[in-house]
Amino acid sequence: MVIHLQSFIRFIVQKRKIFLGLALLTFSMAFLVYFLSEKGPVSATEDKYLYDVQQKVQEEVNVSQEDLRKIIATLQTLGPKPQFSQFAVQATHPYFIFKNHALIYWSDSKFVPEYEKVRGTYTVRSFEIDRNKFVVNHAQTGEYEIFSLIELFRLYESETNHLKSTYNPAIFSIDPQNLSVEKSTNPHLNIHTEDQIFLFVVTPPKADSLKNQSIPVNVIVLGVLGLFLLTIFVLSLIWVFNHEHQYEKAFLLLVVFLVGLRGVMLFYSLPFIFYESNLFNPKFYASSAIVPSLGDLILNLIVIFFLLLYLVNYYYKMKFYLWVMHVSQSLKITIASIFVFLSFYIYKSLYFVLVNIYIFSQYRLDLSLSIDFWDRPLKTSCIGIFLLVSLVYFLATHVLINLFIKLLRLTKPMVYMGLLLVTSLLSMAFWALLLDIGIGVLSLHGLYIGLICWMQFPRYLYTFRYQTTIYFFSASIICAAMATNVVYKQASRRDLVMKQQLGKKYLAENDEIGEFLLSKLVTQIKEDTTLMKIARKALLPREQVQNYVKKSLLDNYFDYYDVEISVFDPAGNSLTNVEGSSNYAAYEKEYNKPKYKTNYPDLFFINEPRNGFVKQYVEFVPLETNFDEKVGYIVLDLRERDGITKDAFSDLTMSDGSQLELGNFSFAVYENGRIVNSGGKGYNYERKMPLSVLNNPFLFSEGITYSGFKHLGVTGKNNRKIIVSSEEMTPSGLYSNFSFLFLVLVVTIICVMLLYSVRYGFTRMNVSLATKIQIYLNVAFLLPLILVVGITLSIIGTKLAESQSQSYLSQTENVSISVWPAVDKYAQGKMSEEFLSDTLTKIVSNSKKFVSIFDTTGKLLATNKNLIYRTNMVSKFLNPLAYIKLMEEKELKVSLSEQLGNLTFTTSFLGIRSNEGRLLGIISIPFYDAKVWYEKEVSAVIGSLLNAFTTIFVILLLLSFLPLMRLRFLYGLLPINYEK
Q1: What one-character DSSP code corresponds to residue 597?
Q2: Where are the alpha helices (DSSP H) in 199-318?
Q3: If we measure between CA atoms, which residue out of 451, 400, 399, 450 comes closest to residue 425?
Q4: What is the spatial distance between Cα 212 and Cα 193, in angstroms, rounded to a whole number?
Q5: Which of 203, 103, 190, 85 is CA-nearest to residue 146?
Q6: Pairing verdict, β 709-715 and 166-167
Q7: What is the pLDDT of residue 72?
Q8: For residue 617, which of 117, 336, 377, 638 is within the disulfide window of CB 3.0 to 4.6 Å?
């Protein structure tokens, strides 16, 4: 087999010019096709983009039509009074069934169209519904009408970290400039079905964005074929250069080929052109022109890895190596010092590669221990980057330090170790002063190169010995420690940013947007004739004015506020029926003061200890007719909710555990040297925080650590200060991250060894008995680790998920007990929908929960957070699966996993019943931090296991390493056969 392979390689080498000729011919054909395809009224760039959109839309339409056929077949089998669940069919796209123009089934509750907005006699067409754009497949069978929606563009009026207005990525690999449902006069921009039914118009992205779409498919095929042929030629030429001992030419050819190939790939955004993966999508990570995506970063590291791999195998055969070995001793010392400096340069460069994963990603990427790698492929890619960085670091350091050792091999040990120490200290000082990198992280590299110089580890890379495994594991420890430092530093940076944001938010300075909207509201109130009529009514004028203002005039923005509306007659008397209510003059006396004035007349801002520093606005609105006749007065009292944590809606604005992290903060507000308010997790500022700390300038810039907590100060207006505090990252948590990264490298090393041994056998590796025993012990150590972690993850994960679900259902049940009387009154006709919503808001105001109540038809009845419904983040319909479970299967309560944008969370549903057992409605509470809490608990368990195994592994490694250290101490640098 080996002989045949060698003969085949010789044949390719002999015929290499043929491969070169074929490669040039293929590239010429590709260029010819490319330039010919550019001719015509439409550029190839737009053509390719529009063609792709056309094909993808047609595929989605076909899938949707197949869904409709299955739904129609199901409907034809139904009886006269089918249940809700009988309409359920497994479908790719959401669909909605209407009967007599009334909605009777919805497969998805995120967006539910109104019948009037999709009605018509058509089979397929596009619609713009509430500024969202869809392709709608329509079918009718008997008295049923079915609409299947293919999303083109989803608009979120209030965007958050999880909810971004976006085009459907299954259709648009790159967002177009514009999308319209009106037919265009430019026919090439019109998108049609296979039956040439017009759907919509697309304006392609700008040329720069389309660079990755600018090559026709046939050009790509020819280019890939030409590249394959050219690669064969280059490899055969390198083989020839190696056999002729022209290693410099071979290396230079390899550099030119690989770097040139990467340049072409970057210019044309390959392979994203034909492999539309998030890994190569610049919107998730963009560091620079040469690293526009995570995938490109991986490819760049792979190129560097292969170049280093060639150097490791052939550098000592190059003419440069022979020359440098014969220069003068003083020049050798200089060159050796340069090699050490270069090793530090490479180390800091790779360190910042890991740092950039955090800085330049538009997606939460990190290297920390977590269990969500399968759910987040891009995060898994970060571990791949860490592995490649470790390999590059190991090989580059090996070459440079091996050259350092060989240059000074005739020098006394103390001399060259002293030179190494001095050069390392100077290099560390240089990079620490020049860049934002600490001495501690640089010293890791200094310790590593000192160790491998002292133990002469580089010589064992070429002959596999027990020292080789120690060499690998030592490098793994350094790389894992470096990456752990990155995790810690970036976590600290994020902690600092969050504290600054929370501090500024809690100091509650003027809300400029809110003030502007309130000024517009005043104008609307004064000009609203309907409101004037309501205020003059004798029957409950206050309640009617309140409902009208909140429902018809008040902007959605003020859902962040608790709004109290007071109404007074022309004499200033309160129109409420409650005894002891303040009159208009009392409001003016309390709030109409110069210190509360804003830039708008009759609008006052209060932010004092007596109201808990909660942002409060009071607006005085006189009601007058066009003839200056006084009708009365309205006073708007708005107070921002819940201080530092805001309300449950803020859960949606956070991402990847941010809301969980908010609960880990404590805070204290200082005014004139004393605490006027405090809260959060409960840090005792009175006892543990001396006032002298407030005079520390570092508190307000980079923060300080005091009594086991990290504190950051923020200064607001009126010399008011807030300190936001959080616990320091525990040594156990830090060690868990180190254990995870270290064991990733250890498993990789063992896997490589096993694969190599299976392929070639230990005999050909020239492996001694001691080394074999060590490898077997490592495998025997790692296999139980993997099994224990897997079994524990399965058991703990299942039990924790069950416990979490029960906890959420219990919380939902407690809330339902509180709101039951109000729902019961509504069911008896003793309360309106608006008053039910107000009552619900008051009942759950302190719970920080997002509570919704649905009626028995599945439609929203009341909620304490209207904004999410008003801005169309979700529809006003119940989750269809919850409807089936509670309404038809008579379940008492159910917990379901839901998704909104890219946020996965758990929602608990519970039926509210009357005393007679009749279902009155369904209460729903989403728990947005469910997944975060679950991952945190499971990760903590896994971290403890990894810590124990890593500690044992490192101790055993040190115990086996100590004899080598002792031998080196006793015999200096004498060549010793350690295996004997």
Answers
A1: B
A2: 217-243, 247-267, 294-314
A3: 450
A4: 25
A5: 103
A6: unpaired
A7: 93
A8: 638
Query: Each residue of 190-214: pLDDT tens digit?
Result: 888 988 899 999 988 865 544 444 4
Instruction: Identify the sign of the CA torsion 481, 487, 490, 491.
Output: negative
Q: Map residue 722 onto helix, strand or coil.
A: strand
**Does pLDDT of 164 surpass 60?**
yes
C-alpha distances (whole Å) from 268 to each of 162, 258, 641 are 31, 16, 51
Which token pair is 321? 């190596």
Which tens digit of pLDDT belongs to each residue from 856-910? 899 999 888 776 777 777 889 999 999 999 998 888 899 998 888 777 888 999 9
DSSP letters spanning 914-954: -TTS-EEEEEEEEETTHHHHHHHHHHHHHHHHHHHHHHHHH
- Amino acid identity at 13: V
pLDDT category of residue 628 using cuts at 50, 70 and 90: low
- In terms of C-beta distances under 8 Å and separation of at least 24 residues, what long-range contacts does 132-135 make, across chains too? 132/872, 133/179, 133/181, 133/200, 135/57, 135/60, 135/61, 135/64, 135/199, 135/200
Task: Yes or no: say if 613 and 508 are a contact pair by the CB < 8 Å rule.
Answer: yes
- Is the link from the previous residue into 731 a cis peptide, with omega within 30 of 0? no
With tokens 């390392």, the residue in question is 424
CA 788 to CA 781: how far, in whole Å?
A: 11
What's the first-to-final CA gap in the chain, in angstroms?
36
- Residues 475/394, Cβ–Cβ less than 8 Å: yes
Answer yes or no: is pLDDT of 476 > 60. yes
Residue 822 tokens, joined: 């109000």
In this prediction, residue 187 carries a pLDDT of 83
Average pLDDT (760-787) is 63
Torsion, Cα 691 697 703 709, to 10 degrees, reads: -20
Q: CA torsion sign, 702 to 705 to 709 to 715? A: negative
Rounding to the nearest 10 degrees, give the CA dihedral for residues 843, 848, 849, 850: 90
Which pLDDT band, with edges at 50, 70 and 90, does 284 fall under? Answer: confident
Percent of the chain scoring above 90 in pLDDT: 21
Lowest average pLDDT, out of 37-51, 91-105, 624-638, goes to 37-51
Q: What is the pLDDT of residue 305?
A: 95
The answer to whether 441 and 351 have CB atoms below 8 angstroms apart is yes
Query: In sequence order, what are the beta bridge partners of 853?
Result: 862, 923
Torsion of CA 770, 776, 779, 780, to 10 degrees: -120
pLDDT reading at 538 higher than 60: no
Beta strands (DSSP E) in 781-928 are 852-854, 860-863, 893-900, 903-913, 919-927
- Mind listing the pLDDT tens digit for each residue in 771-780? 666 666 666 6
| Joined tokens for residue 189 | 């921009």
Q: Is 212:157 a contact under the CB 8 Å cutoff?
A: no
Determine what percent of the chain is predicted with pLDDT higher than 70.
Answer: 82
Asked if 725 and 667 touch (Cβ cutoff 8 Å), the reply is yes
Q: Please tell me the pTM assigned to this model.
A: 0.75
pLDDT the model gives residue 641: 64
Alpha helices by DSSP H, 507-607: 512-527, 529-536, 541-548, 584-591
3-class state of residue 611 by DSSP: helix
386, 750, 760, 808, 824 from 755: Cα distances, Å: 21, 9, 9, 48, 69
For the chain, give the mean pLDDT. 81
The one-character DSSP state at 573 is -
Give a three-class secondary structure readout of 87-119.
HCCCCCCCEEEEECCEEEEECCCCCCCCHHHHC
- The SS3 call for residue 72 is helix
**Under the phi-then-psi rule, with left for phi > 0, alpha for psi from -120 to 50, and beta for the rest, what region is 632?**
left
